[in-house]
Design brief:
Elements (H helix, E strand, L loop, with lengths): L3 H14 L14 H10 L7 E5 L5 H8 L3 E6 L2 H10 L6 E4 L13 E7 L10 H9 L2 E12 L16 H5 L6 E9 L4 E8 L7
Parallel strand pairs: 1-2, 1-4, 2-3, 4-5
Antiparallel strand pairs: 5-7, 6-7
Length: about 200
Amino acid sequence: MTSEPSGMFEAIYAGAESGGAKPPWDYGAPRPQLVEWAEARGLAGGGREALVVGCGYGADAEFLAMLGFRTTGFDFAPTAIEAARRSHPATEVDYLVADVLDLPRAWRGRFDLVVESLTVQSMPPEQHAVAAHDIAGLVAPGGTLLVLATTREEGVEVTGPPWPLSRPEVEAFADGDLVLRRVERIEGGAWWRAELSRGEAGATA
């Protein structure tokens, strides 16, 4: 993310490391919306590969690693990645600095599970479609993409960041044979939880 908001997020992480307030999006534990989804599915990694987009301090990535996934977590903010590595010194997660809009080519079609939680909505609306396309391209054949985002009604303008996602923006993650299998409005309608899979339904994580 090469835009001004990205620099702002690095500054927020840097401020937190200097004793300031923690980032407002940092839950401090795996996101309940992810944990609930994983528990409902009896999710087990079995050595398959998972990727957490915009992993921050790594709570979601560590959760997936605990479930048996070979997990990669990336964030645009180097300070967040440094803090994640420091917070989890014995981790098996591979923490990397990367840009949603300029992802490594080697990642395309690689991951059996991709978790995108609140990252796209942190980006300006004109970048949402490109970011969704780039994230969708990470999912391996037979793999799953889980999208977690706060909701915005279609046609309602917001002044971000964040810029919560409308239903069409959630649907925009579907790309080619990556098919939207389920969209839920959860947390009293305040959150989207969308599940997409590449290939046959039921052949995913």
